[in-house]
Amino acid sequence: MLSILRKNLEKKPVEVSVPCRIDMGGTLDIDTFAYPLRHLLPCTFNIALDIRTRVSLFPFKKDRVKVTSRGFKSAEYSLSKAPFDHPLGLMFAIAAYFRAEGVHIIIDSSSPPRSALGGSSAAAVALVTAFLAVSEKMAITPKFRKKVALLSHALEESVAGVPCGRQDQLAAAFGGINAWHWQTGNEGPPFIKETILKKVYFKRLEKHLLLAYCGVPHESKNVNGIWVSQFLAGRYRRLWEEITINTKKFVDALAVRNYKKAVAPMNREMVLRRKMTPEVLDDMGKKLVDSAVKNNCGARFTGAGGGGCIWALGEIDDIDKLKVIWKESLATKKGACLLDVKIDSKGLLQV
Q1: Could you tell me the end-to-end alpha-carbon distance of the chain, in angstroms, rounded to an integer?
Q2: Is-contact 100 78, C-beta < 8 A?
Q3: Which CATH class is domain 2-194?
Q4: Which helix (H) or strand (E) holds 14?
Q5: Kindly report the CA angle at 321 between 315 and 324, in degrees rounded to 5?
Q6: Helix and strand numbers, DSSP H then E, in the chain
Q7: Among 333, 322, 351, CA closest to 341
Q8: 3-state SS, residue 252
Q9: Is the torsion defined by CA of 309, 314, 317, 318 positive or negative?
Q10: Tens-binned pLDDT, residue by residue, of the chain (351 aa)
Q11: What is the pLDDT of residues 104-162, one digit of tens each?
């Protein structure tokens, strides 16, 4: 890989772009939950957003790897000494997997750093794709997207120190609006992709959505770690069953574009999460969620919460009213803001 990498990058740098996502039913994509809950057929829902993460590869000093990413201090190591527990450690772990030295990895994300939009997993998908693009001709087929998503997940879980879900990688690889049904039998694929809404409905759905960054970065493994520990200890299992059921109700309602019907299971899922982990919402998140509920909308933190983003769904009139309220609330917090909601249909792209 090393000789091919340097030779090809000297001819032409490589750039790959992938979307981030908003979601519901997260955590059910972690095997710790999916296996015991298999009788309820767990699924996770997400919408890929055209808030894209771009990863570029350039030739660099021999035997060294450098990673530059907005919001983080650049780091440079040899592969034999690269720390995988570094804030950019996942990128070094991927470079180690591909034995990629003499390369400068540049990550440019359109989302705020650690905004709980799946940005780090998206960057991993982009980087895996970029390394594959250097050494082989790619046909970006569904089979290839699945391969990249599963490899990216395996590499992330290998260095994370906690169980990780697969939904972020799948949203980045495939794009679109999908439910991911987690298969836990001995045979068959680990997931089934269900397209919930086709591209023709994206523009209309965007009018039913709001997305806010709360101004506080999140650390997903903190909350996820609590959920995993609670579940392993036998706590809140009934609540997780109810979360599974409400996620499916939400998906079924959205599939027929019944936004009013989708609000109730969305908010019920949020109540259950807050009961298990009140810290899943910061002060700004509480304001946004509570105001959404009061204005007939559904609201949900993205990812594992604990900071980052909140998204809302509702009828257009209700969302328009909520937008004004959210703007006023966000104006009181430095760095907090509304983000544009444009749904991505393309998934990973080699630029």
Answers
A1: 21
A2: no
A3: alpha beta
A4: strand 14-24
A5: 140
A6: 12, 12
A7: 322
A8: helix
A9: negative
A10: 555 777 788 888 899 999 999 999 999 999 999 999 999 999 999 999 999 999 999 999 888 999 999 888 999 999 999 999 999 999 999 999 999 989 999 999 988 877 889 999 999 999 999 999 887 777 899 999 999 999 999 999 999 888 899 999 999 999 999 999 998 776 778 899 999 999 999 999 999 999 999 987 766 568 888 999 999 999 999 999 999 999 999 999 999 999 999 999 999 999 999 999 999 999 999 999 999 999 999 999 999 888 899 999 999 999 999 999 999 999 999 999 999 999 999 999 997
A11: 999 999 888 778 899 999 999 999 999 998 877 778 999 999 999 999 999 999 998 88
Structure tokens at 243: 């979360």
Q: What ranges in 233-282 are assigned the alpha helix state H?
A: 237-255, 259-276
Cβ atoms of 53 and 18 within 8 Å: the answer is yes
> Class for domain 201-338, per CATH?
alpha beta
In whole angstroms, give the CA distance from residue 316 to residue 205: 9
- Residues 345, 201: contact at Cβ < 8 Å? no
CA distances from 274 to 166, 208, 227, 270 (A): 23, 24, 11, 6
**Residue 134 structure tokens:** 């250097």
- Residue 232, token pair as written in the block: 């392993």
Domain regions of the chain by residue span = 2-194, 201-338
Q: Report yes or no: 241 and 337 within 8 Å, Cβ to Cβ.
A: no
The per-residue DSSP string of 99-159 comes to T--SEEEEEEESSPTT-SSSHHHHHHHHHHHHHHHHHS-----HHHHHHHHHHHHHHHHHH
Cβ(343)–Cβ(202) under 8 Å?
Answer: yes
Q: What type of residue is 2?
A: L
Tokens read off for 334: 């430095």
CA distance 14 to 2: 15
Neighbour-count burial of 268, counting CB atoms closer than 10 A to its CB (0-12 exposed, 13-18 middle, 19+ buried):
middle
Taking a C-beta distance cutoff of 8 angstroms, is the pair 140, 111 a contact? no
Q: CA 265, CA 250: separation in Å to the nearest integer?
A: 6
Q: Which amino acid is at 26?
A: G
Token pair recorded at residue 62: 């021999």
Are 348 and 18 in contact, with CB atoms under 8 Å apart? yes
